[in-house]
Amino acid sequence: GQQLNQSPQSMFIQEGEDVSMNCTSSSIFNTWLWYKQEPGEGPVLLIALYKAGELTSNGRLTAQFGITRKDSFLNISASIPSDVGIYFCAGPPSGTYKYIFGTGTRLKVLA
Amino acid sequence: DAGVIQSPRHEVTEMGQEVTLRCKPISGHNSLFWYRQTMMRGLELLIYFNNNVPIDDSGMPEDRFSAKMPNASFSTLKIQPSEPRDSAVYFCASGTGLTEAFFGQGTRLTVV
Question: By the CB < 8 Å criterion, does A24 face chain B?
Fold first, then answer.
């Protein structure tokens, strides 16, 4: 089946550092979504991307829709302890309505 | 808006029992999704409704699972009979069309 691979799987960083993570697929996507999940909670939508090459920011978060439409990137600047969680990419592959989720990147921030 | 509301938050049941999970989507949303999350398989889409109609149930694991959406403000996911391998966190999400999906807090199901 279709898969969204995220890297890295996990990250341990110092507070104040910038973070970069990515998501790749073998299929083309028309929409990329980035979610954050904290323990015991459902995923919360952070950023939505709808066009190849699009760069969108939400506070300290910036996400990009890859030109090939097969990848997306999320950056977090000046990380803080509350950034801790699992970050997922998601979307419906082109021609489908079936949302699939990536494998997740687990972020831990050391104060 | 209260967001997507799921109940119960936690459910512990014995193998063989029927389990019903409930979801109230965000008012005005016409898409509803049920997901299952496990450590091994991550977040898996079970079923997708649009305007109360099931569009794709290919993710439903087997006949023991069924989902209904009798109206725009309520959906259920039923497992009968339940098995230990059904233990997972089940999420309901709603949205407008096929854009952003907003998730509930989930139901943690444990089948013993």
Answer: no
Q: What is the mean pLDDT of residues B30-35?
A: 94
B91: which chain A residues are within 8 Å (Cβ-Cβ)? 42-43
Residues 6+ apart with CB under 8 A from B112: B12, B13, B14, B15, B84
Mean pLDDT (whole number) for B5-16: 97
In angstroms, how far is CA A73 from the centroid of its own chain? Answer: 6
Using DSSP, state whether B85 is helix, strand or coil: helix
Mean pLDDT of B16-43: 95
How many residue pairs from chains A and B have C-beta atoms closer than 8 A?
Answer: 50
**Distance in angstroms (rounded) separating the CA atoms of residues A55 and A17:** 21
- Record: contact A98-B45, CB cut-off 8 A: yes
Q: With a cut of 50, list the residues of chain A below it in pLDDT.
A: none
- Report the C-alpha gap between A50 and B93 in whole angstroms: 20
With residues binned 3-state (H G I as helix, E B as strand, rest as coil), the percentages for chain A, rounded to 5, are 5, 55, 45
Q: How far apart are CA A77 and CA B29, in angstroms?
A: 33
CA B22 – CA B55 distance, rounded (Å): 19
Question: Which carries the bigger pLDDT value, residue B7 or residue A98?
Answer: B7
CA-based nearest distance A2→chain B, Å: 12
| Alpha-carbon distance values, A8 to A11, A62, B4, B54 (Å) | 7, 17, 30, 35
